Amino acid sequence: MQSLNCELQATQQSRDGGIDHQGSWILPDLEVEVVTQCKNESKPVGVHYVREFHGVLSFFSPTTVGLFASTSGYSLYAQRFFLRMTHPAILCTVDTDSSRLTSFLLNDRARTLLPKLTVGSLFVNQEHTLMLTYGDKILG
């Protein structure tokens, strides 16, 4: 997320309350508070982790964006629950080899809070790359 101008600080594990990082995402005309949870597991993240994250987000401002990052994707039930969350949130998947984002999904609340943020794809040399834009600016 650092390449996307996200300034995050790791939380102390014993007191993090389910949050791994906290900080700000500095966009061209907006600064958004962000909290993250990260999972590095062999299987897709299950719905119980996303439910727990939703509960933790209730302790933060309604304009704080929750970003859940995984290296193994998400179960169908986790994705369905995520789309119904009442707090602005993003689900993303990170490739462990390249550290690139391979998926980036915003729920309705996050799309409302970040209306200029767009997720797209770029194909170069038969390789798919995820691309984020904010207004007319390419992020990353």
Short descriptors:
140 residues, alpha+beta, Trna Endonuclease, Chain: A, domain 1, 6-stranded mixed β-sheet, 3-stranded antiparallel β-sheet, 3 helices, 19% helix, globular, tRNA_endonuc-like_dom_sf, DNA binding
Number of strands: 9
**Proper CATH architecture:** 3-Layer(aba) Sandwich
Runs in which pLDDT lies below 50 for 5 or more consecutive residues are: none
Q: Helicity range of the residues?
A: 10-25%
- The SS-based structural class is alpha+beta
Mean pLDDT: 92
Sheet with the most strands?
Answer: 6 strands, mixed
Number of domains: 1
- Estimated share of beta-strand residues: 35-45%
Q: Return Rg in Å.
A: 14 Å
Which CATH class is shown?
A: Alpha Beta
Spatial order of strands in the largest sheet: 1-2-3-4-5-6
How is this structure best described in words?
It is a single chain. The chain has 140 residues and is an alpha+beta fold. It has one domain: Trna Endonuclease, Chain: A, domain 1 (3-Layer(aba) Sandwich), CATH 3.40.1350.10. Helices cover 19% and strands 42% of the residues. It contains 3 helices and 9 strands, in the order βββαβαββαβββ. Strands 1-2-3-4-5-6 form a 6-stranded mixed sheet. A 3-stranded antiparallel sheet has the order 7-8-9, with no helix packed on it. Helix 1 runs parallel beside helix 2. The longest helix is centred in the middle third of the chain and has 11 residues. It is globular, with a radius of gyration of 14 Å.
